[in-house]
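Dear colleague,

Following up on yesterday's call, I've attached the two folding results inline so they're easy to grep. Please treat them as preliminary; we haven't cross-checked anything against experimental data yet. The first protein's sequence and structure tokens come first.
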Amino acid sequence: DHHDPAALAAVANRLFERSDSIAATSIEDGFAKLRALDCDTHALVMGSLYLAGEVLRLSGITPE
């Protein structure tokens, strides 16, 4: 099962009192959207620990 990415972006907007969250349908889509922004920004990964670990691995970040 999975949740609709647009619905999760709406949740993030409400939680962080923002209106500019961007939904991604895959890890690759998320990275592409971040690169397209061409700015220093943060990313919120909403999903399983597996998903978060895969994003960290592909980013070259080792959790401490």
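Below is the second protein, in the same order (sequence, then structure):
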Amino acid sequence: MSYPLKRESTRKISWQDYISSKTEERYEVIDGEIYDMSPSPSERHQAILGNFYFLLRERLKNTPCRVYFAPLDVYLDEFNFVQPDIFVVCDREKIKDRIYGAPEIIVEILSPFTSLKDKRLKKALYEKFGVKEYIVVHPDELIIERYLLVEGKYTEPEILGNDEVLKLTLHNIEIPLTEIFE
């Protein structure tokens, strides 16, 4: 299976390779393989990202949790580091110059260039490293897939439409999807 934006390489790329590189390029590494970031996001992608970020930040005020958005590296291990669209970290020990360890929640907003990677590779990666809630946003269809980690495995996705409410387990947050997709 070939994924868009995957670079062919003869060796695995490590975290040390990444942080010592002199390039300004943005890329992610999954199992030591480089995946270029897609072209700049669409206006719709950015509007959804902004709405989601703002709503999460408002609802997590006065909690130990912090909300972040790309580009910010999330280091999972020596050969796995990504830049999720939005993520929530509640363990302050993970927050340094970058994030070291799995966030509690990750949100990926699909684009034509990243949808296969987000739905297959990143979902498996996030499950492996213990991300408790993984949310995949379909901006054109106005739907969200929400995966919950139960006993180390993601459940079947809960599929929510524009007129429904996303109920996160973290602090019992509720977000009307009309506010995300407006």
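For the second protein, one point worth flagging: The first strand starts at residue 27 and ends at 30.

Best wishes,
A.L.
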